[in-house]
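Predict the assembly for these two chains.
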Amino acid sequence: MTADRGKTTIRRSLAALMLSGLAALAAAPALATTPTSVATATSTCTPDTETACIGVLVLDPENNRIADADIEITGPEGFSEIVTTTDDGLSAVAVTETGKYVASLDATTLPDGEELGEGAETEITVTAQMGGTARAAFRIGEDTAVAPSETASSTGEGGLDGDGSTPAASSGGLKADQVWTQIGSGLRFGLLLALASVGLSLIYGTTKLSSFSHGEQVTLGAMLAYVTMNVMGMPIWLGAIVTIALCAATGWIQDAGIWKPLRKRGTPVVQLMIVTIGLSIALQYFIQLAIGAGTQRIITSNPETWSLGPFTLTRASWVSMVIALVVLLAVAWFLTRTRIGQATRAVSDNTALASATGIDPNKIIRIVWVLAAGLAGLAGMLLGMVFGSFNWMMGMQMLLLMFAAVTLGGLGTAFGALVGSLVIGMVVELSNLFIPSDLRYASALLILILVLVFRPQGLLGRAERIG
Amino acid sequence: MDFLRILEQALGELIAPTTAAYALAAIGLNLHFGYTGLLNMGQAGFMLLGAYGFAISTIAGAPFFVALLVAIIAGALFALLLGIPTLKLRGDYLAIVTISAAEIIRMVGRSTVFNEQTGGSSGLTGNSFKETFLGLSPLPDGRSAIGPLEYLNNGSDSWWVRIVAWSVVLIAVLLVWLLTRSPWGRVLKGIREDEDAVRSLGKNVYAYKMQALILGGVAGSVAGVLFVLPRAVQPDSMGRSMTFFIWTILLLGGAATVWGPVIGSMIFFSVYMLLRAGMRSALPDAVSSAQIEQIGGMLVGITLMCLVIFRPQGIFGDKKELSFNVR
């Protein structure tokens, strides 16, 4: 195959990818037929797999809400934020670290005529759990004997029912809408995970390298999105294009600067793997240096939720899912219908045979690195938006889930990565229903180990001797 | 003078208990990777398990040596569990499984479910499990100085911890030296070079790999005990970065050498300290201390990359011993 034809084809495919992404952006609003907001109007936080909410309210003896009282919430890692209550809902703040938070009521900000009763609490400790809302309700006035101090709803948006006077602990029993919510989140997470892991799988397929720095490629996407959209103030579409272009460029630079020379030298794959570990450490600290060790938000406005059938997700989630789906379809089309894609699969299958038929494996591998880095960047950007916030560890956490997905689907098979990701995404979110949310990633890793025991070639992999 | 103080700090790092703990963990990893060719990416998991085993059984009332035994058994069992499914598979499967298993241990350790045993994400404080170890000390109370280094005789950051830690490291070095020049060690190296050839000689490759994995894992879990003795058990401080640092240390000193992990650890920590302390005093206003840590971490990553690319045998290694590939 000539280089020229290769270039035009790849350009065409990239253009198709981009166009389809934009089309998806435009089409997304039409999808949600009933843009209802589930959360109470005044709530400023939607609990999510990566976000926990802490809601505060101040009640008088008749269970009326008192507005305009300031409550300071402090928590782990120096978290501190002041929330002002309203009279028609729960004022909430989003946090990204689970753990104990202390809400302290500033008594001087209570409206005139309202005073703290005898022995009333001004400090309530609550435990924030991912995907739930922990509440702190302060009572003022005389009758302060029984203050509902802490209720943490277990999952989903159910916690924000807005009725603070009878806070019900909903930890027991599986509710149908809870299951639907988790399935929705699982689909969303699976699709985004697939975006990232398809690249990992392609790299593995063509070079037999398990790239440990792929997680940082994901974080890089979120970081660049944050820098372009939030710090530099670009509009979302422009920021997205710049982010993806820069991420893809890192793939090109890496292959040109590191991997191709090492391939030429015949460095064993084990050593290459350790190089990716070094790269991963360096990138991790670089990202920390660039955006700090705390969490960052790409989009700072309050998330709006849309419902479609039984699923209720934020607008960003719906848009991301559509983009992910379209891009994944485009990748599938690229791999099966274009010459470059077919050549890629040929190289994955048998590099020596592919090069004997006139395919230049180095060129294919270069394309795979660019594609993988670009897709990882896109995944990181979308994940950062969907989860509300991200930090430098995001990719590191994702990496093992990607490995799990790729192994589950069958190492090196791109479609296996897609199937594996959807399963892993679903497992991660659904396991929320049965085990504490801080163990949900562990469940995915357990699956990974079980797969290796019983079906090491993965779901779609070819059974061959791998020992 | 400032420069002297920095040198002193770097010198202190040479014999610090943490350096010894990393050296021991790297010795274990050396058995895995250097001699047998196993890609263990979860050495920090072995360490964390050892630390938990030791601390939790001490808190439950076990005497020191029983607690140590618990840590050792925990490490051995973990190695067995990981080895059964993966040692028959290609090498990089072991890498993925070990790194995942180490993460599972960390997640379970920091989860709220076992808060009572493990203390959740805040971990177990040092004072809750240190008494039995400090009680064994024959040293009189007070402070002693050797050259510019002065520490308490007994306590968390003391001569007693240093003496014990380095004695353990020396014993491990001796063991590795004896083992690797025995027929058993030659079989291990044979497996590293060509598994099928060894199999054709009638050796049970699987069993040998398993033995190496367990031995190295036990070294890791004892290293975990050494690591937490001067501090607390904190699951988040024993995650993937720790494993990667151990790898850097091993490759720096030289895999498949007896002294490589020890020298690697000493050089790694003293240079790391020199760099950070140097930056801190040279640019006190330009960068914050958090940024210095981050720049230091970046340099570690770049060092690891350059080492593997330009000198995969490390400082002491033999390049011929590291030309193998995992199949």
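Chain A touches chain B through 47 residues (CB under 8 Å). The mean pLDDT of chain A is 76.
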